[in-house]
């Protein structure tokens, strides 16, 4: 009985001692349980945040690593291309581990670019560092080209050597890529390299403009490019003045007008309407004449049609003074606005407008802007702008003065002088003006005049030699030829009269029968005959001299008359 009581008291005592401890432990256990649950919720909640932080950190990590392995920026173009491509893939990754693993792979790719494994032990092939004696840069103030999706554009890279010494055999190669963020053009050739034979240095004393060299690529823009400004890089390898191989990279920029379809989220992006081409009727547009302009349009969106389209055709403005500026082309109907009700998805449409080119336009291409405003199927409003370039030609107007032929009759073996003026009465420059003669009775008579600016006068002074006696009317053709800015040649024919006679003096002097004729008189008659011959010779000389004076006065009078006509013509053009 006592034992049972003792055991009971021991049990009660233990329970009493353990009760406060249990009370103290219970709240702690609740706190641990709550912390565990909160951490689990926090982990679940931050999984997307952690992925976003890893993706953002990847860009900083790769950029820092690029600076570490390429401090001089010699491989910046290749490394930037690798990083840009990598970031595009990283944005689509779903796990943090995947991002970190891919960053490590990208670092290895960057190491291979900076120092390939095969070249670790071959330091002799590394190019010599560029020094101040040959420093290449993009020269001039070239206008940024606009590349429309699916269309061809000319990319011009002006290169100038700002160093002291000459640079030779510069091979310029654009940095190609299948990534439109690096190379937004179709790759249609295996080699895009171009060579510049020499780039003179500043020690030549030439100006920067004279030392500049230009290389041009005609490229077709990919149809899936975006919009905005984009950098295009070119690698240049060359030899310096000491024959050492050098290399550098030059960058230029283009403006992209891209197209849009359906985005990755399934939502339709901005519908783009572009001008895929144009035509003019007639094909050659001449100043002062009307023409029909046809624009070929395309809705590049595959997700939505475009409606309620308004096109405003705006021609380039000519003139320097704001009070005297004018549009190069004016619509003949008075309105430059065209309305189109609808273009289906991926559909095409042609619009036309008749325009007239100003009469005083110089011969060159003129830009025409096409301002667009339209709506999609959900009545969202959009605007767009593109432009086309229309070449304008000026008709060449050439006039010739009346040729002077002195003398108008010669003997075989004698020379005659043919003189006349060539007047450029048009608005365009004449190139390689020259004169040739075409005749069976004379030879020679070729003259090179050169280039004639608008309103200029060229003088032709020809000498021809009699070859055979004239058997017809004595007409000689003068062929005046010139070239326009496109290299097309035009020939103008002019005819002059020049008789060629057989030489009679030798026959007369060689006839001994007259000298020995017994019927001839004595010494007095011989003297009289000599006097008569002398008088005849003097009369002939006086006649020729009078003819020369008369022809020169006539030429001067005609030239003054033509110059007055030119001045009147310029006044009429100014009034227009």
Main beta-sheet strand count, sense and barrel state: 5 strands, mixed
Global structural class = alpha+beta
Query: Gap between N and C termini, in Å?
Result: 140 Å
Low-pLDDT runs: 1-36, 38-43, 119-132, 260-268, 506-516, 518-524
Count of beta strands: 30
Using the CA coordinates, give the radius of gyration.
Answer: 44 Å
How many H/I helices? 7
- Approximate strand percentage: 35-45%
Overall pLDDT: 77
Report on this structure:
With 576 residues, the protein is of the alpha+beta class. The chain has 7 helices and 30 strands. The chain has helices at residues 2-69, 76-90, 96-114, 208-211, 505-509, 512-515, 523-575; strands at 136-138, 146-148, 152-161, 167-174, 194-199, 213-220, 228-239, 245-257, 273-281, 285-286, 290-299, 306-315, 317-318, 326-327, 329-331, 337-343, 348-357, 364-375, 381-393, 398-400, 404-406, 409-411, 415-424, 430-438, 442-444, 447-452, 457-466, 475-483, 489-497, 499-501. The strands form 8 sheets. It has a 5-stranded mixed sheet with strand order 2-8-7-4-5, with no helix packed on it. A 5-stranded mixed sheet has the order 10-19-18-12-16, with no helix packed on it. Strands 20, 21, 23, 25 and 27 form a 5-stranded antiparallel sheet that branches. It is elongated, with a radius of gyration of 44 Å. Mean pLDDT is 77; it is low at 1-36, 38-43, 119-132, 260-268, 506-516 and 518-524.
């Amino acid at each position: 009985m006592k034992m049972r009581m003792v055991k009971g008291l021991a049990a009660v005592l233990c329970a009493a001692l353990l009760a406060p401890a249990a009370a103290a432990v219970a709240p702690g256990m609740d706190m641990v349980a709550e912390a565990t649950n909160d951490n689990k919720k926090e982990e679940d909640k931050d999984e997307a945040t952690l992925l976003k932080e890893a993706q953002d950190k990847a860009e900083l990590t790769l950029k820092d690593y690029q600076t570490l392995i390429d401090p001089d920026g010699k491989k910046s173009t290749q490394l930037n291309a690798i990083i840009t491509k990598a970031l595009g893939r990283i944005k689509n990754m779903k796990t943090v581990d995947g991002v970190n693993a891919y960053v490590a792979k990208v670092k290895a790719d960057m190491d291979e670019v900076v120092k390939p494994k095969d070249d670790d032990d071959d330091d002799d092939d590394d190019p010599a560092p560029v020094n101040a004696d040959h420093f290449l840069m993009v020269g001039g103030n070239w206008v940024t080209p606009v590349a429309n999706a699916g269309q061809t554009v000319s990319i011009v890279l002006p290169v100038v050597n700002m160093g002291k010494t000459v640079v030779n055999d510069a091979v310029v190669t654009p940095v190609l890529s299948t990534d439109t963020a690096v190379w937004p053009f179709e790759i249609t050739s295996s080699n895009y390299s171009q060579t510049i034979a020499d780039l003179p240095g500043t020690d030549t004393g030439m100006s920067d403009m004279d030392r500049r060299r230009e290389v041009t690529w005609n490229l077709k823009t990919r149809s899936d490019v975006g919009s905005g400004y984009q950098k295009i890089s070119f690698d240049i390898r060359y030899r310096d003045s000491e024959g050492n191989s050098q290399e550098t990279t030059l960058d230029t920029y283009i403006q992209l007008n891209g197209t849009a379809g359906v985005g990755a989220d399934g939502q339709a992006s901005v519908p783009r309407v572009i001008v895929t081409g144009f035509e003019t009727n007639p094909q050659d547009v001449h100043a002062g004449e009307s023409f029909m302009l046809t624009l070929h349009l395309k809705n590049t969106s595959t997700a939505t049609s475009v409606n309620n389209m308004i096109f405003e055709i705006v021609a380039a403005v000519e003139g320097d003074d704001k009070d005297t500026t004018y549009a190069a082309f004016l619509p003949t109907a008075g309105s430059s606005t065209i309305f189109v009700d609808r273009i289906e998805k991926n559909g095409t449409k042609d619009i036309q407008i008749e325009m007239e080119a100003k009469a005083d336009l110089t011969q060159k291409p003129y830009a025409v802007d096409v301002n667009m405003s339209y709506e999609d199927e959900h009545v969202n409003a959009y605007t767009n702008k593109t432009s086309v370039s229309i070449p304008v030609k000026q008709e060449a107007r050439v006039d010739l003065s009346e040729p002077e032929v002195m003398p108008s009759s010669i003997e075989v073996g004698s020379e005659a002088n043919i003189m006349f003026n060539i007047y450029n009465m048009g608005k365009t420059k004449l190139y390689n003006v020259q004169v040739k003669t075409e005749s069976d009775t004379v030879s020679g008579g070729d003259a090179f005049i050169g280039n004639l600016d608008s309103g200029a006068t060229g003088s032709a002074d020809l000498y021809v030699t009699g070859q055979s006696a004239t058997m017809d009317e004595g007409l000689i053709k003068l062929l005046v030829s010139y070239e326009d800015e496109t290299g097309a040649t035009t020939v103008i024919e002019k005819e002059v009269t020049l008789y060629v006679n057989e030489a009679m003096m030798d026959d007369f002097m060689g006839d001994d029968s007259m000298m020995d004729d017994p019927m001839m008189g004595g010494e007095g008659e011989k003297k009289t005959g000599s006097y008569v011959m002398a008088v005849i010779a003097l009369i002939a000389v006086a006649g020729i001299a009078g003819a020369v004076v008369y022809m020169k006065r006539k030429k001067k009078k005609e030239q003054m008359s033509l110059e007055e006509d030119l001045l009147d013509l310029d006044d009429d053009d100014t009034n227009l």
